[in-house]
Amino acid sequence: MAMSAVVPRIHIVGRRNSGKTTLVCELVREFRRRGLRVATIKHTHHAHELDTPGKDSHQHREAGAVGVGILSAEMTAVFIPTTRDTDETTRYARLQSAFADCDLILVEGDLHATAVKLEVWRAEVGGAPYADTDSSIRAVISDEITTDKHDVWPRS
Q: What count of other Cβ atoms lies within 10 Å of the Cβ of residue 38?
C-alpha cells in the first residue's frame, strides 16, 4: 500500500461475548495468509490507564508531555492523551498514520464509528442485532439468523 493512501478500516462490532475478538483474530490470520499486512485497534468506551503509573513514560505525561513514545528492542508504543470530546476523525487518523504501511486496519468495537461496520451476532448472547436499527452496519455475521432486513454472512 502506498504510504500516502488512507488505510481502509473495518469495524467488527457486536454485543459482549458475541465473538468479536475471535473473529478479528481469525480474519488477521486469514488476511496474513493471503499476504496482507493487517493492523488492529481495540476500541473501548471505558477509561483505562494504558501506561504504568510510576514508570518514566507515565511521569513524562504527568509532567505535561502531549505524547509519549516508548521504544524497546522489539516493540514501540505511543501514548497520546485524548478526551472524550476528541472527534473520531482525529483519534483514528493518529493511529491510521502509524499503520500507513498496512493494507487494512481491523477495529474491534466502536459501534458509533462512521467507517464500515460488520456485526457479529449470537442468539445466546441475547438482544436483537444492532443492524436491525442501525443501517450503517453493512452485514451481520451469524449462523443463527435469517432475515431480509440486512445482509447475513455465515460465521462458519
A: 19
Contact between 28 and 107 (Cβ < 8 Å): no
User: Within 13 Å, how many C-alpha atoms sit on residue 42's CB side?
Assistant: 10
Distance (Å, whole) CA 56 – CA 58:
5
DSSP E strand boundaries for the chain: 9-13, 38-42, 68-71, 76-79, 104-108, 116-120, 137-141, 151-153
pTM over 0.90: no
Beta bridge partners, 105, equal 9, 39
> How many CB atoms sit inside 10 A of residue 131's CB?
25
* Domains present along the chain, CATH in parentheses: 9-43+86-153 (3.40.50.300)
Q: Provide the 10 A C-beta neighbour count for residue 119.
A: 26
Residues 97-156 have pLDDT tens digits of 889 999 999 999 999 998 999 999 999 998 999 999 999 999 999 988 777 778 888 887
Angle at 85 between CA 130 and CA 95, to 5 degrees: 75
